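chain below, 265 aa
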Amino acid sequence: MAYFNINNFFRTVADSGFQRTNQFRCQIDVGAIGAAADTSPSLGLYLKNKYPTASKWLAEGLLCEQTTTPSRELEATTLGIYGYDETYPVYSTYLDQRCSFYAPLIDHGTKQGNDVASLFHEWQNGIQRRADTFGNDASMVLKFPDEYRLSEGMVLEQLSTYNPKRRGGILGVNVNAQGNVRDGIQQFNRVSRWFNGPQVPTSWTNRRSSDFDDSEGPTLTYKFFNVFPKTVETANLNWDVASEFQRVSVTFTYSYWTMKEEQLL
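prediction:
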């Protein structure tokens, strides 16, 4: 009788490890919004010019703190044939994609702006505008889909757990599977709170900087097509919580997604 030992399996995969849920980036190419339409300038170029820093960080995947892998459901029907019930697929359903983004304040000369939230609100205004910038009623006419959809340009990548060549993004530090960097940041935050100082999100250690080494490549890549923000959710505001960062939660709808095939060596 064969002996089953799960530890043998764990030893087999010890070198490569498991896919970690905190190793990902979600990129949105703001400038490509509405690129399929024959309009000039496109909605994407308007947003990119109005919010250049937020657009850059979204394109680099630095702002998405939390999301999920996409889902696909095969709707089925049941047919009775010769006394047996058989189930057959009839069409696919792709469920909405929800993402949570950081909302850093961005300098504009003598003032600061919450540009990430503004960008997504303005994207929805590009679909249907209720009022102009002075509060006057707008036409409220819905635009054509090609004018407001991101036909291609939203990509979700899952990354390997540890690469000695990889340097974490904003903080520029190596991140390993034991999370010693995260522990250090948590200690910094505890001390900083004593002096009402700034707080650093621990998930920033997983972001990728502009000098990221892409030689290893993602472990899995999802590409979304015909994307637009269906819902920009409310954010809780509370005078009693001084150290909490605002997040902008957005639910995207899209036509479908595909897996991008990587060349395996």
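Residues 18-156+219-259 form a domain with the Pnp Oxidase; Chain A fold (CATH 2.30.110). Residues 164-181, 205-213 have pLDDT under 50 and may be disordered.
thats it, cya
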